[in-house]
Amino acid sequence: MAVVIFCFGCAFIFYELTGIIGREMLADKHITGSGEGYQNVVFGKDSKDSLIVNIQYNVFAPIIYMLLIAAALQYFEMNQLAQNAVYIVPCYYLVRGFMITVVSGKRQLYNPGYEFKVAMMGTILAFAVQYALVLPGKGILPTVEEFRTQLWLVFLALAYQFVIRTFGRSAKNRQNKVCTQQMKKKYILDKYDAFREKYDSIVNEIAPGNYLQRVIYSIMIYENFNRTKTQRWGENIIFLLGKRPMTLGIMQVKTLKFIRDAQSVEMGCQKVKQSFEEYVERAIRENDQYYRFEGGEPEICLEKICQDYNGAEDYVDAIKYIFYTLHEFEYAYDETYEIEKRMPKTQEITECSENYAEVYTFEELAEKLGRCSHIKLLEDCSITPLETENVHAVCDPIYRGNMLIVENVEDLTVEGQHKIITLYGGDGLCFRNCKNLTLHGISFKQQDCVPEEVEAEPILRFDNCAGINLEQIEIEARDRKGIFIHQCRKVCIEGGKLQGCCSVACKAEESDIAIASSVFTQNHCAEGVIQVSDGLLNIENSILEDNPVQDNLIYNINSNVKCNNVFVKGGGFKQISNQVIGQGVHVVKDCN
């Protein structure tokens, strides 16, 4: 029994030492001169790197540790115990499995097949080394006279290196095969359920909103993954002995006083909430009442929170991976609305204000652009040639029509009350360098067709704008491009309908755009109904119906695209997108 306790005790000490040694000391470059080194489980990317260094370390390190223990026992003339030191190696693999699956709670990330193969290799080699070095009863470290007789060990090491590298090149021993995405997701969701049951009262009191809770639990899961219970116990002991500032608790909050896990959750929640409020308050000040926490805003805010919390290189990617793995909560609480209520209100525009205007014709509309903050269109109209002294609006003649160019306008709302602006030829509207612009309840209808040989401008174009909201906008393009967005920030299309477009219905370049509760139908698009490049696109609660395209409904070029409750029906497309865009798209089959 004493031998068993001794071996398991030594194995436990060695397991804890492996966590202290760290990844950098085990870098492959220290062994072979190149490579990425020891591979840890990472969230946020699907690594295909070989685990050869992991295999070498987990086989060789316990044997070297066993030899050092045996040498020390021989020095103190405890030869019988030295001969039993070989059992430290299999005990280490048992302790390793128990600590990972039970104590650390990472059973979802534990691959029994891989661990068994490594344990068998290490155990067999340990008994071979014991037979050669320990059982003869001589000193383990060779003398000068014995050195030449043990050169065969060099040959064995070279042979082992060949075997282990052959084993490491196997596709089955790549990181993405040993620890799969499914294993990571199960670990994340299981930990979320456990932590929510334990800390929900604390989190819900400080941050009752949907978004913040997902961020907090994402950070909690990742910090717990990096600092297991036993490691946190060690940190507590070191803190009590040294009384210096340290990061403690499950959320690894820096503190000058001793705190438990529940207190660290409370402090971590406050820290996350403070970063969130600072970001939103600054955004509201920049965009006034037109700011919406939509489109690419949640992800940009998440990156800011992560940088404030921990500036490590891979920290943001890991938290984002966990954040998007967690299911979206359904709380009727809007964090940004609560912040807006606390901030100073801007003066509301009334119908009696000088900033308010009611117009009946396109000429009147163009004259008021940039001079009024709220314009209400009361009659249907069409784009016509005009001469105006308004420096913000210029009408350029194009093919059989006119393009109204609106420049340098800020804080403008144009309300149409479902009025129609009729277009002929290449008629359209172009907004340049505008900020906080809302178009609400306006229909743009193309009256005639533009010949194919004419490169017509899109009906709506936005260049270098910010804070653009297109609410309940309808476009009937009749074989023209619908909306083109170039180098714009915070563009939101909500409750819109785009139909009859050719080439592309909505195209965005170097922009962040959100599309919600909108319909795309009968668009004959060679380049995709929606095309986005070098930007962010978030589509939710929208429908793509009967859009005949040559290849992809959504064409993605180097962009971050997310879909939630997007329904697709008919159209004869080849595939939804040329790149993976998640699980939020549902193809509805025709029942006929």
Task: Detail the poorly predicted runs.
Answer: 22-35, 346-352
**Mind telling me which CATH architecture of the largest domain this is?**
3 Solenoid
Q: Name the CATH superfamily assignment of the largest domain.
A: Single-stranded right-handed beta-helix, Pectin lyase-like
Mean pLDDT level: 81
Number of domains: 3
Distance separating the two termini: 74 Å
Envelope shape: elongated
User: Sheet with the most strands?
Assistant: 9 strands, mixed
CATH class of the largest domain: Mainly Beta
CATH topology of the largest domain: Pectate Lyase C-like
> Which structural class is indicated by helix and strand composition?
alpha/beta
Estimated share of beta-strand residues: 15-25%
> In total, how many beta strands?
25
Number of helices: 17
Describe the structure.
- The protein has three domains: 177 residues, no CATH class; 137 residues, no CATH class; 232 residues, Single-stranded right-handed beta-helix, Pectin lyase-like (Pectate Lyase C-like).
- About 4% of the residues have low confidence.
- The longest helix is centred in the middle third of the chain and has 27 residues.
- It has 17 helices and 25 strands.
- It has 592 residues and is an alpha/beta fold.
- The radius of gyration is 32 Å and the shape is elongated.
- The relative contact order is 0.05.
Write out key terms for the chains shown.
eight-stranded parallel beta barrel, Pectate Lyase C-like, 41% helix, Right handed beta helix domain-containing protein, alpha/beta, 24% strand, transmembrane, elongated, 17 helices, nine-stranded mixed beta sheet, 592 residues
